[in-house]
Amino acid sequence: MSVPGKTTLRLLDKADKQIRKLPQSVKGALYDFQYKFRENPTATGLKFQQLKGHDKLHSARVNADYRALLFHVGDGDYILVGVRKRQHVYDNLDRFRYEVNKVTGALEIFGIVESRDAAEEAPQEGLAKPAPAVEATEPAEPEVKPEPVPEPAPAAEAAEPPSSHGAPLFAAYSAEQLRRLGVAEGLVEEALAVRGESALLELVYGAPAHTEEVLLALADGRGFDEVLEDITAPVTAEGPVDPADFTAALARPSTRVTTSDTGLREVLEDDFSAWKVFLHPTQEKLVRRTYRGPARVSGGPGTGKTIVALHRVKNLVENLPTGRNKAVLLTTYNTNLAADLRLRLRDLAGQTVLDRVDIVNIDSLSRRIVNEGGQGGHGRRPISDSQVTREWRGMLTELGEQRWTAEFLEDEWNQVIVGQGIRTRSEYFRARRAGRGQRISRAQRAEIWQLVERFTMRLEEKGVWTYRQIAQAAARIEGERAAKILENRDREARAGGQFLHRADESSTRLRFRYEHVVVDEAQDLSSADWTLLRATVDQGENDIFLVGDTHQRIYDNRVSLGALGINIRGRSSRLTLSYRTTREILGSALGLLGEEEWDDLDDGTDTLSGYRSVLRGPRPVFRGSRTWAAECDAIVAWAKDLRDNAPHDTAPSIAVAAPTKEEVDAVQYALNRGGVRAASLGREGPPAGFEEAVHVGTLHRFKGLEYQHVTIAAMCEGLVPRAGLERLRASDPTRYAQEVQKARSLMFVAATRARDSLTITWHGDPSPLLPEKAARAEEAEGGAAGPAGTTGPEEEGFEDNGLFKPPNALL
Ligand SMILES: Nc1ncnc2c1ncn2[C@@H]1O[C@H](COP(=O)(O)OP(=O)(O)OP(=O)(O)O)[C@@H](O)[C@H]1O
């Protein structure tokens, strides 16, 4: 790990929050300090010294008032574990511990981060005491360990919160069980004695991250076996653990320190850089692993799938042979998400890495390939999905065709015919229709084929084509190219010599377009898209890496990757720790998914089991109003309140999601009229200049975004799901079920955009997709869901009181 003669300085993850809160001037001094320290830790100005009574702990001078606390791992390796005021360097060091965790093998340093309350009181910028003008006036370094500050006397009985009474929280567990789960040895006894929520939160605040995850999961009611499997097993050390070998421990991904020596600098430069420098061990493994073929990472919202994809791209590029071509494709569904990926990758890896990556959304890639191949549809213009539906309806009306609905035919065409690249009637007769519900006979297939042919001719005559047709054309072009490459390779193997590669007309050597393909939001790509991607990269090591979550599928693309030549069997992993939402929001959002079953992109099922968060916040609010006008008023009041009460004049990020454009326009109008600056979210995000306004958009628009506060409005019966779907219930139950599932996914996506607070509102009767308990409890609170004319405060809501938390939650 350490290079002889070189000093490395990493940052302990738990010290990160404290450092971000330091006054700007101290951060500046720390910035200079880390350079100087790496250069020469013993330079006199740094006053580097071992703390009395602590073999591994040292202090060094950051500026006149502040000292860095440094843990010496061994050789030239150091970890910055805290920054303290000079006179407080020794405070509470009796709680300081370090150990190599016997289960995870991680080097864990804890008890050094000040308590939550102390951290909250950290000096704010501008309040810091000015540094003394003359260095020489600085008092001497603390030479001797001061007397330990006596523990504060326990608060009087009456002042204790009621939750701290009763049995210890983890009374049901033995010390041995906590150890097996990987709770830090030095905290096992303390954990077993802990009573009440605030004491637990205090304990986990400064605890190693793994101990925090385990204890909060147990407190959430997850069983021992579940925690062992979901939280501990993925980070368990692969080989034997030597508790005395700190250097080996530092090299393990389970040790939560900045992944690179420059991570500390990034934290100081950018307050939002945690995702760049602290990967969770399970994320880290996925970034570095070598796969023998296509691999898939799933996981609930906010678990860092995109972050893993970005780090993986960086890692793949860093392992490429030198060159100038764009050897890695990073693709996703939307244009705005592709633009966001570009910004983040540049931020993470810099321009040199970016230069080797083609970042483009999947539709643009198809169009590019089709244009390159000279098959640009002969000037045909792409049309949107809603235009396609209108075209189907128009054609069926003109034909007086009533045997099939426009929706069914459009879906059959998209999913089965275009999706599988079917080009002839006989191919269609043999086509696989898994998951399509309604069975159809051979005679019916013949009817459908005829209608589809008519429809494609109609589009051609109008000079338009759909994005799926473009994807299909691109997949064909790329497929032919791949076949040629393989054929050449085969001939070369038989005949020997490389010249055969040059057998095509252009005499340029034919290659696969990319070395590696990385896909974000994989759940929304169509079969044609996957066929195209398969053909852009050779089969082999690290060829395709995809991340996605089928619970968030909001377009109608259902695929079976195996059938499309992308075999992910045995190479699937799941992320389960949310970095975005609080556990309260997460619990309610899961309640929105109902009891549905979700696929895994490959004929199997996926679950969100183990999905969790260690972040906490207010419980989501569910609120009914009697009228739409009253609901809009309540939304305006909510937004004003958040804006007026934002700390330190910051503009909180606020968003309102609603089912259709009509409600979006109404909410935006109400906000603007109420004096709240609001803008609607377009395909490319908010309009320029409105980044800090309240963003209002249809549920679809929220994919991939993130806000502090979110309201999901108009969650009413008849709107969610659309009343028009009712007729499918009897005529096409499979499709009906798929549409309901999509409506749930849309709500789920919107709910999980919220970082800090979530509100769900409706007027009249609530959507039947809202958990029944929410609506019932709201009625009991005197809200508006009762019979018309009921008196009661319209804007009043209720807090879900943990309705959707696991039934055995201890807190
Ligand atoms: N290791 C990490 N350390 C700190 N923050 C992280 C980490 N991983 C992810 N995050 C943060 O969590 C948030 C969600 O990450 P990301 O967008 O990658 O999740 P996702 O799984 O792709 O979410 P979604 O499925 O909702 O699109 C982001 O703000 C990201 O910066």
Structure description:
This protein is an alpha/beta fold and 811 residues long. Helices cover 38% and strands 14% of the residues. Helix 13 crosses helix 14 and helix 23 runs antiparallel to helix 27. The longest helix is centred in the middle third of the chain and has 29 residues. About 9% of the residues have low confidence. Bound molecules: adenosine-5'-triphosphate. The site of adenosine-5'-triphosphate has 21 residues, from helix 11 and helix 13. InterPro entries: DNA_helicase_UvrD-like_C, DNA_helicase_UvrD/REP, P-loop_NTPase, RelE/ParE_toxin_dom_sf, UvrD-like_ATP-bd. This is DNA 3'-5' helicase. It catalyses: Couples ATP hydrolysis with the unwinding of duplex DNA by translocating in the 3'-5' direction; ATP + H2O = ADP + phosphate + H(+).
Task: Furnish the topology, listing elements before pairings.
Blueprint: E1 8-11, H1 13-20, H2 24-39, E2 49-50, E3 57-61, E4 66-74, E5 77-85, E6 97-100, E7 107-110, H3 116-120, H4 175-181, H5 188-193, H6 197-205, H7 209-219, H8 224-232, H9 246-251, H10 263-269, H11 274-277, H12 281-288, E8 295-299, H13 305-318, E9 328-332, H14 335-349, H15 351-354, E10 357-361, H16 362-372, E11 381-383, H17 385-399, H18 406-418, H19 425-430, H20 442-461, E12 464-466, H21 467-495, E13 516-519, H22 527-536, E14 544-547, E15 572-575, E16 577-578, H23 583-592, E17 598-599, E18 605-606, E19 612-613, E20 621-625, H24 628-644, E21 654-658, H25 661-673, E22 678-680, E23 694-698, E24 707-712, H26 726-731, H27 733-751, E25 754-763, H28 772-780, E26 798-799
Parallel strand pairs: 1-5, 8-14, 8-15, 9-10, 9-13, 11-12, 13-14, 16-19, 20-25, 21-23, 21-24, 22-23, 24-25
Antiparallel strand pairs: 2-3, 3-4, 4-5, 6-7, 17-18, 20-26
The structure holds adenosine-5'-triphosphate.
